[in-house]
Design goal:
The complex is a heterotrimer of chains A (317), B (279) and C (340).
Chain A lengths: L3 E12 L2 E13 L4 E5 L6 H9 L7 E3 L2 E4 L2 E2 H8 L4 E4 L3 H4 L6 H12 L4 H14 L5 H6 L7 H14 L4 E5 L7 H18 L2 E6 L2 H7 L2 E6 L2 E7 H6 L4 H8 L48 E4 L2 E4 L8
Parallel strand pairs in A: 3-9, 3-10, 7-8, 8-9
Antiparallel strand pairs in A: 1-2, 1-4, 1-5, 5-6, 10-11, 11-13, 12-13
Chain B lengths: L1 H31 L3 H5 L26 H37 L1 H16 L2 H12 L3 H28 L2 H8 L4 H38 L10 H8 L8 H35 L1
Chain C lengths: L1 H30 L4 H5 L6 H11 L5 H13 L13 H36 L4 H15 L2 H15 L11 H6 L9 H7 L3 H38 L2 H8 L4 H9 L5 H24 L5 H10 L3 H29 L7
Helix pairs in contact in C: 1-15, 5-6, 5-10, 5-13, 6-10, 7-10, 7-13, 9-10, 10-13, 13-14, 13-15, 14-15
The chains are: A alpha/beta (317), B mainly alpha (279), C mainly alpha (340).
Membrane topology (chain C): Multi-pass membrane protein
Family (chain C): Belongs to the binding-protein-dependent transport system permease family.
GO biological process, one term (chain C): transmembrane transport
Chain lengths: 317, 279, 340
């Protein structure tokens, strides 16, 4: 049984100007021990999917799904209980994720004492060991510091330590490398992979960066306009993508272009979040679009665990 | 009516109604007061210090006068107080602020340091000092409070003018050779006047409160003229046994000040809301 | 460096304001009245008393000379003699100042203790009824006339419920039969120092109603400031992160969000203290509190003008100094202030 089982998840937020469809239809399954990447451009609903899993959607937002289970339990009803206990969050932008007026020791201590019953000395030792586990060389100094005294990479490790402190076995990493330099980001990804193997964790990695998917993930799901359009093992998705959007994304990467040639870009823009969509959301921008694409929701194509939604027959790559 | 509620919300509309009611009471006092002569000051010693009853709705004071009538007559004094204080303060503050903001330089520095000195005082103390120096009386207490109030308007006016001074049409007028006074009167004054007048209208409430505090201390109008603050003070001797004497006028002051406060909030929210909608 | 320049600039400005204040008091006291001598000659002065005052004030001398005399007298603490108490005004001031200070300090503390938690709760329950009640409460607190609130509190707690004393600083039993040794002038502190718990409780009971009256307006302000600061902070990412990490709501509100909102608290302290100093004039009358406020109000009734001038002078200078200190404190806490 997958640890996280999501089928046809939708999240809409009512506003005075109409409902915002942050997530229209997302399906994915994550197995224990897997690092699963969710990739898409800004506004595709990837962060909101993560927030829905934690039960931290804006007030008044409506969540609906055919199935939305974590370890067999329904997330709609139990998110608050599972949050912080089984499901942890590594926030975007570690500088913003840490409280500027509290010391690191205090921020870690608060998490530890919420989830464990330990005397003060033991908690301090636990905090230090968690920091060491994330690769920080001088945990004592870091504990005494305030967030603004640490570098971006160190802040991110502290945030990871906080997530570990909850004792959660499922972590949602929301753009963990976006705010960091490339080399530091690579270290963080390596750290996450190591922690997954060492502690038997499962990770949902949200990102807009293909390199992150390539480097760190076992499986990936591609989101477009609030819909999951392709999912599969990373190797298959990157080497033989099925969905035209995935193909366009990959060819738009700077590395994909031959030296000196113009960069390929995808014409058009994503549909506005308030509008309803009939048929395939990508149809207006798809180079291989057919009449049926704008009329009917595309069927599922693909083999084994590599699937995508498209009207085009499978070998039309 | 519906449009009014839309603009102000229910609390704001009720507050506006209260303010209008009090203005009406001030104008119509001699006609709606149950005992107009007593309201104006005539004693009625036989009925002194009676609790609220059918004959005297809010009770009577130490000279037997109907408190309701006294309060209604006092409305004229208090509202006039508030309006005149604000008007005087505008009269002094607006030109000072205009001059400081428009001409800038050392004029601005000098004028602003001057307002700083006035603002350094705790307002009530300066008003007390001024009122003590001038002596009791209706006009004197107004001047006393206005002396502490005008610096706020000067600052407000100056801030508005600073914004306007940078506007293209003002620049254009200067370049075309239009004289300073002309520019001020035709361009700056109208634009500054509007927000300041709104602020001033809302300030009548707090001004009224300060004037009441002065009367309470004995520095306002002289008896037998009815005045809310003075009535509260006079009733103190009989408090808390004959609580109605101080409580009734005190409650009135509170209600009027509250109405202005709520109205001010409602207007500010509406302006803020409009700004948000257009953003 | 910027900080030092800022402190220097503000101190010089304050010194200038002090001179200005002295001049303004001089003008109001000696230039504005139609006959300053009559004013300074005490209540119901005789012709010869007025003549004496005229000579003392040196009314024929040119204005700058008179101002110089006035300013030097003020600077050396020579405020003249009070007609009512027949003592040096400076002595009176020293006697009455602690009582008013005690009120001001206590009410400021109360204002923060009431206002800040209410602001936190209002922000956490934004839009719902605790928030609406709180908003209305703070508007009412601002509109309520100080003297009226004092009288209502007196009526309810002292008269109807009989729980608290009606007036004064200490009950007769204690102040007459077993008086407190005066160390600081702050009754509560002196009681603790002397180990007298009965006096401590008594002093506290007398202090509560007047302090509550003076605390209401600043509490309202504190509530609004805390509320708006908290609303902004509760949207920040580190609060969302704290929630995601499973921390309990109270811990997030008070342990994580509130510390970020403490900046406005500094402003409220200044405002509250200032409000208490002026409001004391009204409150001390009603509660028969022997402080500067009552001193001034009795001087008004007794037409004891030199007292009014002296108190205005002294309190205003305290004001200026206090504002200066608060500005400096704010610059220390938030370096951006020094750059403005």
């Amino acid at each position: 049984m997958p640890l996280l089982d999501v089928r046809n998840l939708s999240v809409s937020i009512p506003t005075p100007d109409g409902d915002v469809h942050a997530v229209r239809s997302v399906s994915l399954q994550i197995e224990r021990g897997e690092i699963h990447g969710v990739i898409g451009e800004s506004g595709c609903g990837k962060t909101m999917t993560g927030m829905a899993t934690l039960g931290l959607v804006p007030k008044g937002a409506r969540i609906a799904a055919d199935r939305f289970h974590f370890d067999g339990e329904d997330l709609g009803a139990n998110a608050a209980r599972l949050r912080g206990r089984r499901i942890g969050l590594i926030s975007q932008d570690p500088a913003a994720a840490l409280n500027p007026v509290l010391s690191i020791a205090r921020q870690l201590d608060d998490v530890i004492r919420t989830h464990r019953d330990m005397p003060r000395q033991a908690r301090r030792a636990e905090a230090a060991s968690l920091l060491a586990a994330t690769g920080l060389p001088d945990p004592e100094r870091v504990l005494k510091s305030y967030p603004h005294q640490l570098s971006g990479g160190m802040q991110q490790r502290v945030v990871i330590a906080q997530a570990l402190a909850t004792g959660a076995d499922f972590l949602i990493a929301d753009e963990p490398t976006t705010a960091l330099d490339v080399s530091v980001g690579a270290q963080v990804l390596a750290l996450l992979r190591r922690l997954v193997t060492e502690r038997g964790l499962t990770v949902l990695m949200i990102t807009h960066d293909m390199d992150v998917i390539a480097e760190a993930c076992d499986r990936a799901t591609v989101l477009y306009a609030g819909r999951s359009v392709e999912t599969g093992p990373v190797g298959a998705v990157l080497r033989s993508p099925g969905h035209p959007y995935t193909r366009a994304l990959l060819s738009a990467l700077p590395d994909a272009a031959p030296h000196g040639a113009r960069l390929a870009a995808i014409d058009g823009s994503i549909p506005p979040p308030r509008s309803a969509i009939t048929g395939c959301a990508f149809a207006p921008r798809c180079p291989q679009a057919m009449a049926v694409c704008s009329a009917a929701v595309p069927p599922e194509r693909g083999r084994d665990t590599h699937r995508w939604l498209c009207h085009l027959p499978e070998d039309a790559a | 009516m519906k449009k009014l509620v839309q603009r102000l919300g229910w609390p704001g509309t009720i507050a506006l109604a209260v303010v209008v009611l009090f203005a009406a009471a001030a104008i119509l006092a001699p006609w709606i007061a149950p005992y107009p002569a007593q309201g104006a000051g005539a004693p009625n010693v036989a009925a002194k210090l009676q609790p609220p009853s059918a004959a005297y709705w809010l009770g009577t004071d130490h000279l037997g006068r109907d408190i309701l009538s006294r309060i209604l007559y006092a409305t004229r004094v208090s509202l006039t107080n508030g309006v005149l204080i604000v008007a005087f303060s505008l009269l002094i503050g607006l030109p000072v602020g205009l001059a400081a903001g428009y001409f800038g330089g050392w004029i601005d520095e000098a004028l602003m340091r001057g307002t700083d000195v006035f603002l350094a005082f705790p307002a009530l103390l300066l008003a007390v000092l001024m009122a003590a120096a001038l002596g009791p009386g209706f006009l004197n207490s107004i001047i006393a409070v206005a002396v502490t109030w005008w610096p706020w308007y000067a600052r407000l006016a100056r801030a508005e003018v600073l914004v306007l001074r940078g506007q293209p049409y003002v620049e254009a007028a200067r370049l075309a050779g239009v004289s300073h006074p002309r520019i001020i009167v035709r361009h700056i004054l109208p634009a500054t006047g509007r927000p300041l007048t709104v602020q001033a209208a809302l300030d009548v409430g707090p001004a009224l409160l300060t004037a009441a505090a002065l009367s309470f201390l004995g520095l306002g109008v002289l008896p037998p003229t009815a005045d809310w603050g003075q009535m509260v003070d006079a009733g103190r001797k009989f408090f808390p046994a004959r609580w109605w004497y101080s409580a009734m006028p005190g409650m009135t002051i509170f209600l009027v000040a509250l109405a202005f406060s709520v109205l001010g909030d409602a207007l500010r929210d509406r302006k803020g809301g409009a700004a948000r909608a257009s953003a | 460096m910027e900080l030092l320049r800022y402190i220097l600039r503000r101190t010089v400005l304050s010194a200038f304001v002090v001179v200005g204040v002295t001049f303004l008091v001089f003008v109001v006291a000696q230039v504005v009245p139609s006959d300053p001598a009559a004013l300074y000659a005490g209540p119901r002065p005789t012709a010869e008393q007025i003549e004496k005052a005229r000579q003392e004030l040196n009314l024929d001398a040119p204005l700058p000379a008179r101002f110089a005399t006035f300013a030097t007298a003020m600077a050396s603490g020579d405020f003249g003699i009070s007609y009512k108490s027949r003592r040096l005004i400076a002595q009176d001031l020293r006697a009455y100042l602690p009582a008013t200070l005690e009120l001001a300090v206590f009410s400021t503390g109360l204002a923060l203790l009431i206002g800040i938690p209410l602001g936190v709760v209002a922000a956490a329950r934004q839009g719902r009824w605790p928030d609406r009640i709180g908003s209305f409460g703070s508007i009412a607190a601002v509109a309520m006339p100080t003297f009226f609130l004092a009288m209502i509190l007196q009526l309810v707690f002292a008269q109807w419920l009989g729980v608290l004393p009606l007036s004064g600083r200490l009950s007769r039993e204690i102040s007459i039969s077993a008086p407190l040794p005066m160390v600081t002038g702050f009754n509560m502190i002196d009681a603790l120092l002397a180990g007298r718990l009965d006096a401590f409780g008594d002093a506290f009971a007398h202090l509560i109603l007047p302090a509550l009256t003076l605390a209401s307006y600043p509490a309202g302000v504190a509530m609004r400031l805390t509320r708006s600061a908290m609303i902004e902070i509760l949207e920040r990412r580190h609060v969302v992160a704290a929630r995601a990490l499973g921390l309990s709501e109270p811990r997030i509100l008070f342990g994580h969000a509130l510390p970020n909102a403490m900046g406005p608290a500094l402003t409220v302290i200044g405002l509250s203290f200032a409000y208490a100093l002026t409001g004391a004039v009204l409150v001390e009358i009603i509660f028969a509190w022997p402080g500067l406020g009552r001193y001034v109000s009795e001087a008004i009734l007794a037409k004891d003008f030199p007292v009014i001038a002296a108190v205005t002078m002294v309190v205003t200078i305290c004001y200026v100094v206090m504002n200066l200190l608060i500005d400096i404190a704010q610059a220390l806490v938030d370096p951006r202030v020094a750059l403005s």
